[in-house]
Amino acid sequence: YEDLHTFELQAPTRVIEWAPGKRVCVAGYGWSGGNEILQLLPPPTLQAKETQGLCPERDFKVECGGFSNRPVYSLKHVPDTSLLVTSGPPDSSLQVWQVSAEDSDVIKSVSAIPTENGTGQPWAKIATISARAPWVLHGSRLNSVQITEVESRKNVYMAASRNSEELSGLAFLDCNTLLFCCAKGQLCLADVRQPQSPLEAVSVPPAPCGERWCVGVGRGPQGSDSSSQPVACLSSGGHLTLTDLRKTSESLASAKCRVPSPSSGAEFLCVSWAPALEGCLAISGFDGTVHVYDAQSWDSSGREAEPIFVHKGHAFGGWDSSGGPALVTVHTWHPQKPRTLLSAASDGSLHVWDWVQSCGKC
Amino acid sequence: LSFFCLGPGAGQDVGRSCILVSIAGKNVMLDCGMHMGYNDDRRFPDFSYITQNGRLTDFLDCVIISHFHLDHCGALPYFSEMVGYDGPIYMTHPTKAICPILLEDYRKITVDKKGETNFFTSQMIKDCMKKVVAVHLHQTVQVDEELEIKAYYAGHVLGAAMFQIKVGCESVVYTGDYNMTPDRHLGAAWIDKCRPDLLISESTYATTIRDSKRCRERDFLKKVHETVERGGKVLIPVFALGRAQELCILLETFWERMNLKAPIYFSTGLTEKANHYYKLFITWTNQKIRKTFVQRNMFEFKHIKAFDRAFADNPGPMVVFATPGMLHAGQSLQIFRKWAGNEKNMVIMPGYCVQGTVGHKILSGQRKLEMEGRQILEVKMQVEYMSFSAHADAKGIMQLIRQAEPRNVLLVHGEAKKMEFLKQKIEQEFHVSCYMPANGETTTIFTNPSIPVDISLGLLKRETAIGLLPDVKKPKLMHGTLIMKDNSFRLVSPEQALKELGLAEHQLRFTCRVHIQDPRKEHETVLRVYNHLKGILKDYSVQHLPDGSITVESILIQATAHSEDQGTKVLLVSWTYQDEELGSYLTSLLKKGLPQSTS
Questions:
Q1: I want to staple A326 with a disulfide (CB 3.0 to 4.6 A). Which of A345, B138, B279, B388 is the partner?
Q2: Is residue B412 situated within a structural domain?
Q3: pLDDT band with cut points at 50, 70 and 90 for residue A53
Q4: What are phi and psi of B77, to 5 degrees?
Q5: ipTM of the complex
């Protein structure tokens, strides 16, 4: 490690989201209510250009907090506003929160965005953008995907699909293009301006069925079209496929990761591209580790790939509430510092780490 | 219970702590700290807040000092000798031993180095300490007949304590600075389920999620290692007691594990003093230290040796721990001057440095220092700062509240606007009120005192005889008379109360007249009434007595002819106060008239 910070949250989180001003948001996912949504101010070490080891301030500061009765499974900040949107069981509705850091440190619940299907639906996956207005794209199944204007709660788009496939992720590729990833692995594209055209799968996973898939979308440099970035799909069996959305007929590259089969199904599967490190991506959710891969050398053979770094910190940590070993619930990259990641696990730990690149390439 | 905060300073992590608590008529001052950021009178609390014209000794019942840090005891000699207080001052034994050293050190910097005049003298420190009464952990100390105090282990630094102040059944717990996680040489704070009316907790780090000690130590060791590997020298200015011990243990273990050869030195004065105090107060350290101490002298490390002045000129890498901690004088400053010019070297400042000291200057970024004789010292060595201070974070505060189970919580040392979330969290989880007063603000907390009342055996027996067996979990409604006499409270039966008070018992009886149209003879009317009531009041005992009256339970009904009108009969319904309800019912029933019958 170049740098390593370990923190302990009072309750484990399965979301780590960056908010404006380099803030980080985390939230609890317990079933007995009283889950805390926290907006944290990271220590100056994370904000400085160079790594400073012995900095007077090495701690996270809880800037604001709120309470949620539901478990929070997904949290997204709404750009250009001081609002947050969360989702979680028991249904696919969304909760909207107001963060007003100057006046008080309480995150207040302001409204809810209900969905028609009601209870029993899986929790909604969410993505936000602020193009024509602050929008939230949400849905738990392909046929229930919609875009709602956050402040007015007006519906601006409904996907024309009769497919009730469960979604594992969705994203705005740009202000008009939507990407959906089904739990079974199919990827679908849609255009906001053409709500009537039916959604069709642009890519189907090569690996055997029965596995669950999740998606990670790259963030290109400012101004570039996100659809030019390959999309990474990770399966619960450890298969990683990269797809170029402009040429979806064949997968760009694929590899197999040496990971154990995840003990909790695919609940915490997470794959993400490094924003400042060309061709690198990270995966987690199988055990107490986070793997970082350099995908630039991959071909389409699906061979086993060696990670360039494995963060094992959480595996040496505590136990989660059910007595099992800690499982990494989520990870995210630092937007500017190339090799810095944040990861959280089911025992409440939150790590910030930066590894030493031995080969000197990245 | 009222709480008044004379300190601390706003927002900064080092303010001055000075709190006044009024509990059941007793006035206690908690801590008497100095604000390290100010050079003038603002560094001392404003004692005129307490009482404008009375003598402090008369007003205050006692002063309690939680630990030896200057922001908690720095103003004590000023308070007791210059402002004037002759009452008792309570603190733990280690605090009593170490306080004067720190106070003298501070006095030296302020007066000798900075030339201040309105400051306490060495003699004042001595006189002040004469008023100190040292206490042991968990020992109940009677300040006077009603006021008692008890100290609990607080971790944080050697001798730090949390205090419980109790008057009758009202109590307050003041935490001072505390730490809920043990470290290498001190244990964690602990308190029993004492259920105080108020818990006053420091909240400096309440909104902080602290980086683990392991990571801090890792970085500290990394920096030391890197410097030593490139042939540089590391200077760590320390105060004799406190983090120095932690760091020594840490380095010793690291050196052993990595098989490092560079020498580590500890200035002699430091070793002896520290050793002396740790031996003296061994029960205040943690289990591990105590075990180690039994086996060997704590400062007989394999890799750490006593320092000699001459070693500072030796070539090659080394690590030196030297006093004093803020680089303001003495050995650490001497070594600093020798090593400052070489960029391969490093100085690691262990904590807060008072303004005006070299430590403070270099931490603020100054790299050209003016020394005595107008000599300029260029600082090329690396300057690092590490914070190993042990305070409770939000999780720790919740833990302490869970342990003590207070009825109210008050947080000090925090920024009120930014603590609304923590306040809500505490209120939601523990269902207690949480206060966060500002400086100079008085907070009043109402307590529910429990007043014990003796209940007479006769009353108890009587009440238990009535009805079903009482459910132990449900409160039982009783009927008795409370007698407050000669400072005692007694609950007795009304009859006994009357007897004791020499009062005669009076019986109230009501009589009501009901007119009924009935031309027949009186005894026939009575029979009609009897049959009527018997028919309706099936659950009651209705009797027709030989003398012509009717009884319904204990209510009496008699019939007479109206004096002027033979066709009207007058029914007299008579009942005692206890039967009011039935009596009224009967009356209204009879007023409705009798049914026509052919009997």
A1: A345
A2: yes
A3: very low
A4: -65, -35
A5: 0.82
Residues B274 and B152 in one domain: no
Does some domain include residue B448? no
State pLDDT tens for residues B17-72: 888 999 988 999 999 988 766 667 777 877 777 766 668 888 899 999 999 988 89
At B469-508, the pLDDT tens digits run: 666 677 777 788 898 888 788 888 888 888 888 888 888 8
**CB–CB of B560/B569 below 8 Å?**
yes
Angle between helices B268-280 and B243-258 (to 10 degrees): 110
**What confidence score (pLDDT) does residue B56 get?**
84
Q: Is B326 helix (H, G, I), strand (E, B) or coil?
A: coil
Query: A56–B387: do the CB atoms touch at under 8 Å?
Result: yes
Angle between helix axes B93-107 and B268-280 (nearest 10 degrees) is 150
Are residues B488 and B515 located together in one domain of the fold? no
- Check the CA dihedral A88-A93-A94-A95 and report its sign: negative
Chain A residues touching chain B at CB-CB below 8 Å = 3-10, 34, 36, 40, 43, 53-67, 103-107, 350
Q: Which residue has the tokens 């309690």?
A: B64
Structure tokens belonging to residue A243: 């797809």
- Order across the sheet with A290-294: list the strands: A270-273, A280-284, A290-294, A309-311
Q: The tokens of A178 are what? A: 């939507």
For residues B257 and B353, membership in a common domain is answered with yes
* Run of H or E residues at B97: helix B93-107
How does DSSP classify residue B531?
H
Task: Give B219-253 as a 3 state SS string.
Answer: HHHHHHHHHHHCCCEEEEECCCCCHHHHHHHHHHH
CA distance A186 to A177: 17
* B210, B222, B420: residue with CB nearest A105: B420
Query: What does DSSP say about strands B161-167 and A134-139: parallel, antiparallel, or unpaired?
Result: unpaired
**What does the pLDDT read at residue A51?**
44
Cα A290 from Cα A285, distance rounded (Å): 8
In a domain, B445, yes or no: no
**E strand or H helix that includes residue B290:** helix B287-295
CA angle B131, B133, B138 (to 5 degrees): 160
Interface contact B395-A63, CB threshold 8 A: no
Please give the structure tokens belonging to residue A162: 């009769």
Q: Using CB atoms, which residue from A36, A53, A63 is nearest to B219?
A: A53
Alpha-carbon dihedral sign for residues B321, B326, B331, B333? positive
Q: What letter would DSSP give residue A337?
A: S
Mutate to test the interface with B, among A1, A58, A353 (most CBs of B within 10 A): A58
**pLDDT score, position A69:** 92
Say how many domains are in chain B.
4
In the numeric block, which tokens belong to residue B239?
């105060």
Q: How many CA atoms lie within 13 A of B457 on its CB side?
A: 0
Q: Indicate yes or no: CB of A6 within 8 angstroms of CB of B215.
A: yes
CATH number, domain containing residue B90: 3.60.15.10
- More reliable by pLDDT, A28 or B303: A28
Q: Tell me the average pLDDT of chain B.
A: 84
Tell me if B444 is assigned to some domain: no
The CA-atom distances, in angstroms, between A117 and each of B184, B301, B422 are: 57, 70, 37
Test A7 with B209 for CB contact under 8 angstroms: yes
- B343 assigned to active site: no
B468 in contact with A at a CB cutoff of 8 Å?
no
Chosen for mutation from A39, A50, A54 (greatest number of chain B CBs closer than 10 Å) is A54
Higher pLDDT pick, B335 / B280: B335
Q: Is the peptide bond before B494 cis (omega within 30 degrees of 0)?
A: no
For residue A285, the one-letter residue type is: G
Q: Which residue in A34, A53, A62 is closest to B209 by CB distance?
A: A62
Considering the domain architecture, whether residues B26 and B130 belong to the same structural domain is answered as yes
Distance (Å, rounded) from C-alpha B462 to C-alpha B451?
A: 23
**What's the DSSP call for residue A2?**
-
